[in-house]
């Protein structure tokens, strides 16, 4: 149900769900899978492919702030707004009420630091899921690209592709030890690239050599500046139809808390 000016009550935002870490698994040299658990995850909506969640981090004392819902339906934070970052719900298990999230351990950032130190019992809160992406069942050809931060989203996208899908997946990572097995239909082959130069440059160079036609659906997420180059190249130089191109800047060199939903359109 959507809010309209004629109605007297605004929709009430759901406060984030308080969760506890149940398990931490090392996936690669620079990535951990954190499984969150908690009764509060009951009713968490089945995420669409490439969906996102909001991760609310604890303060230095380990306390996770909890908001109240104001009379206008918006969340208020009596103890101050906690640090929040965006992640991909990699897997939700509705029977066990567990949610898996994969974190890049890139070093310098509150979320990356939290994930590096997360242990069973560590606390956080989760908002969402959000996201409206859906796989066009008619789409046969795909060109998918991303860096480490997009590996979880790409895994959810590959799992959602129909059996007959064809195409290429290109993953730019720091080094060979950052590679992981990915689920993919037989016709979609992942290719791994070790990063050479600035983040995203290798991926964009690969895109420039890609065999693309009007029917190819492109999905790319990586560093925001590289996303801008990729999007402009696809739409301007290659003339791909806009609806076939999905691009997201997931983070930006030198910027903390890069805004969500950065399509790289500017
Ligand atoms: C829709 C969406 C889904 C996402 N899903 C995931 C996911 O599942 N897993 C995941 O790990 N990330 C994911 N990200 C990216 C993640 O939100 C950012 O990397 C975020 O900035 C991490 O927060 P932080 O507190 O660690 O660093 P910040 O405080 O935001 O940044 C601190 C410094 O670290 C740098 N930095 C941030 N991220 C990276 C990175 N990935 N590599 C190198 N340097 C970096 C910044 O440039 C800055 O200089 C997603 C982003 C979006 C928009």
Keyword list:
266 residues, alpha/beta, Elongation Factor Tu (Ef-tu), domain 3, Rossmann fold, seven-stranded antiparallel sheet, five-stranded parallel sheet, 4 helices, 14 strands, globular, binds flavin-adenine dinucleotide
What features would you describe in this structure?
The structure is a single chain. The chain has helices at 110-117, 151-160, 201-208, 224-237, and strands at residues 17-28, 31-37, 52-56, 68-69, 75-76, 84-87, 91-93, 98-104, 123-130, 141-147, 166-173, 188-194, 216-223, 245-251. It is of the alpha/beta class. The chain folds into two domains: 17-130, Elongation Factor Tu (Ef-tu), domain 3, CATH 2.40.30.10; 141-251, Nucleotide-binding domain of ferredoxin-NADP reductase (FNR) module (Rossmann fold, 3-Layer(aba) Sandwich). Helix 3 runs parallel beside helix 4 (224-237). Flavin-adenine dinucleotide is lined by residues 52, 85-88, 102-104, 106, 108-112, 149, 152-153, 250-258, 260.
Report the major sheet.
7 strands, antiparallel
Individual helix count: 4
What is the class of the largest domain in the CATH system?
Mainly Beta
CATH architecture term of the largest domain: Beta Barrel
For CATH, the homologous superfamily of the largest domain is named as Translation factors
CATH topology (level 3) name of the largest domain: Elongation Factor Tu (Ef-tu), domain 3
Query: Topology as H/E string?
Result: EEEEEEEEHEEHEEHEHE
Nutshell version of this structure?
By secondary structure, the protein is α/β, with parallel strands linked by helices.
């Amino acid at each position: 149900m959507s809010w309209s000016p004629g109605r007297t009550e605004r929709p009430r935002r759901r406060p984030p769900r308080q969760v506890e870490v149940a398990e931490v698994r090392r996936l690669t040299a620079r990535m951990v899978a954190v499984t969150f658990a908690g009764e509060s995850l009951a009713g968490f909506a089945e995420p669409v492919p490439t969906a996102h969640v909001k991760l609310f981090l604890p303060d230095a004392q380990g306390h996770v702030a909890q908001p109240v819902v104001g009379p206008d339906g918006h969340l208020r934070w009596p103890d101050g707004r906690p640090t929040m970052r965006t992640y991909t719900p990699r897997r939700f298990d509705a029977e066990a009420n567990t949610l898996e999230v994969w974190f890049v351990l890139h070093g310098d950032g509150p979320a990356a630091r939290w994930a590096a130190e997360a242990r069973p019992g560590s606390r956080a809160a989760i908002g969402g899921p959000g996201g409206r992406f859906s796989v066009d069942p008619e789409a046969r050809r795909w060109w998918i690209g991303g860096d480490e931060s997009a590996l979880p989203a790409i895994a959810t996208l590959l799992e959602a592709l129909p059996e007959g899908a064809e195409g290429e997946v290109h993953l730019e990572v720091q080094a060979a030890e950052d590679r992981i097995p990915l689920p993919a239909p037989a016709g979609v082959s992942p290719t791994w690239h070790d990063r050479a130069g600035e983040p995203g440059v290798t991926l964009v160079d690969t895109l420039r050599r890609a065999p693309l036609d009007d029917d190819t659906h492109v999905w790319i997420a990586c560093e925001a500046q590289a996303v801008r180059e990729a999007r402009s190249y696809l739409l301007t130089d290659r003339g791909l139809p806009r609806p076939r191109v999905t691009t997201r800047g997931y983070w930006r060199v030198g910027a903390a808390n890069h805004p969500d939903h950065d399509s790289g359109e500017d």
